[in-house]
Amino acid sequence: MELEVKRLIAHGKYAGSFSFDYVPPENLCLVPLCKIGEVKVEGEYEIFDDDCVEIKLTVKYLLAGQCSYCLNEAKKEVSYLTEVLFVPEKDDENYYYDGNKINLKTAVDDAILMSQPHVLLCKEDCKGIDVT
Ligand SMILES: [Zn+2]
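Above: inputs. Below: predicted complex with zinc ion.
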């Protein structure tokens, strides 16, 4: 999960795309009784003159487990796009990198966290467990 910025610059590849599969740690799933499957990560990068690197990051995965309301089986395809900026000088808003290589793990984990719904439902109008 690394982008070798220095090397890309040396090769004149100031823009491009990448993709890889990622198995996230289990504790990254915030939805109760659910699991995140393998995550497909896709990205497009652009390296600017000041070594800042803009990355459009997409994470796609299957969220599966039990319906948050009725506990029946449920699953949902999640796809989430975010734009992040890596900067070689630390600031409060962007991701920092050393000017050489970008490790994408933190940004990908953050994208997975932000992409998750609060609940997973078996169907949109699930009424929950029928107690009558
Ligand atoms: Zn349900």
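DSSP finds two helices and eight strands in the chain.
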